[in-house]
Model the fold of this input.
Amino acid sequence: MERKRYQRKICLLGDGSVGKTSLIRKYVLDKFDDKYLPTIGTKVSRKEVVMPFQREKIVVDLTMIIWDIVGQKAYQKLRQMYYQGANGALVVCDVTKRESLESMREWTNSLFKVTNPVPILFLANKSDLIHKAEFKSTDLEALVSAFKSPYFYTSAKSGANVNRAFYRLGELMIYPQIKSKR
Ligand code: G3D
Ligand code: MG
Done:
């Protein structure tokens, strides 16, 4: 098996308190690696993932550099620095907040203004509170279909689908690279 090393920058987007920081915490167990960049109100974490691509006979060592906005008052200028160079994003809403679902469209559009379309994945977080949901999966599908991107229901509390979501985004970011190498 051939072995390749890649590094990719991922941004988490979404309204305040939808669970962005909690998702990163759940996923990145090694919190000592966190770096805080006060000038742009951003926290950067690192996660190493081993990704076997069976069919391509290649194993990828992917370093995910995960960016998190600290506080929600992200000014336009800062937001631009935050998005700059992103290779992919997780766009997050809270199942108990209808408004956060609608916001995902704006977050995605503001990202694409800076990065051009990069792989994204939509997360309906707090799935452990699904009994209090303010929207249905058909509402979510209607919104994400415009972007032709997948979605997952996640819970940073229970951990449901958290690994899977980051891993899937990793695949979406790396797969074109591997395919073009053949
Ligand atoms: P943000 O980074 O998007 O602003 P946070 O959101 O990660 O800070 O989370 C905001 C609040 O939601 C936190 O509660 C956090 O514990 C909670 N939360 C995050 N993810 C989940 C989830 O999947 N399920 C549930 N039930 N709660 C979640 P507090 O009380 O600390 O403000
Ligand atoms: Mg946060």
DSSP finds five helices and seven strands in the chain. Residues 14, 16-22, 125-126, 128-129, 155-157 surround G3D (ligand 1) (CB under 6 Å). Residues 162-180 form the longest helix (19 residues). The mean pLDDT is 91.
